[in-house]
Design brief:
By secondary structure, the chain is mainly α. The chain has 10 helices and no strands.
């Protein structure tokens, strides 16, 4: 029988032999099986033991501040590896979870061995601030991984939405407004930075002086963010010039971006 003579029932029967998952079409077992029960049971037991250990162990006060988020973060990262029906460590959720989970494990072991949160690149802040910063970072991992798992496992039944970008034209008024706002922020910030540095405006030989303006004070990082806003108007203008195929405008915008790069380099971020 040729392929053109197959009936609809035959095609349906052949397509139903290998069930597919909603996420990527990969074969997925339909029965639980001993292996799946073992993996899920092992995850529950290990998670319970970890929680019990953190409850009865006598960690120092410095370590206790980060124990709970570390345990939750590691458990959420390893959840797909133990819980998925398909035994595939390289599917997206399992692989990314292993990568992040192992990193959290290494950090947790380092904290436990040291008996405190030791941030060697932030020696100027107090130990209490280090503990709060570390706890905030690890809790952010917990929230991010939980949100990722929710989005990964909850099926999205709506059809794909078509992008409504085709055929749109640039609004010159909006471009000018956005550029004016960016420059209204970037120019005062750079003027303040220039007043603190004191060297010539195009002098890139004294990067250490520029770095000293913000490096020793963690609250001064807004200087870099503010001055980098000067890139946006030039990049928007470059995009318009490329779309309209104006060669001179492309050259002028590219040169402006280079000049702005030299100005930002004076902050010593790469020096």
């Amino acid at each position: 029988m040729s392929a053109t003579q197959l009936s609809g029932d035959d095609l349906a029967e052949r397509e139903s032999v290998v069930p597919t998952s909603d996420s990527g079409g990969a074969p997925e077992p339909t029965s639980w099986g001993l292996g799946l029960l073992t993996r899920r049971g092992a995850f529950v037991v290990l998670f319970a033991v970890a929680l019990a250990y953190t409850g009865i162990s006598t960690f120092s006060a410095e370590v206790s501040a980060v124990v709970t988020p570390f345990v939750l973060g590691i458990a959420l990262c390893l959840f797909p590896l133990f819980w998925n029906r398909a035994q595939d460590p390289f599917e997206p959720a399992s692989f990314s979870g292993m990568y992040t989970g192992l990193g959290l494990m290494a950090s947790f072991v380092t904290v436990v061995e040291a008996g405190k949160v030791n941030l060697v690149y932030l020696p100027e802040i107090s130990q209490r601030a280090k503990e709060e910063l570390a706890a905030t970072v690890v809790w952010s991992y917990v929230i991010a991984q939980a949100a990722y798992l929710v989005g990964y496992y909850i099926p999205y039944r709506r059809g794909p939405r078509k992008a409504a970008l085709a055929g749109l034209s640039w609004s010159s008024g909006r471009l000018l407004f956005a550029s004016a706002v960016c420059m209204a922020i970037a120019l005062p910030v750079y003027a303040w930075f220039q007043a603190r540095v004191g060297s010539d405006l195009m002098d890139v030989t004294q990067l250490s002086k520029g770095k000293a303006v913000w490096r020793d004070d963690p609250t001064q990082t807004w200087i870099l963010r503010g001055m980098m806003l000067m890139y946006l108007p030039a990049m928007l203008a470059l995009a318009v010039a490329i779309e309209k195929r104006h060669a001179l405008a492309v050259i002028a915008c590219s040169a402006l971006i280079v000049v702005e790069g030299i100005l930002v380099l004076r902050a010593g971020q790469r020096g």
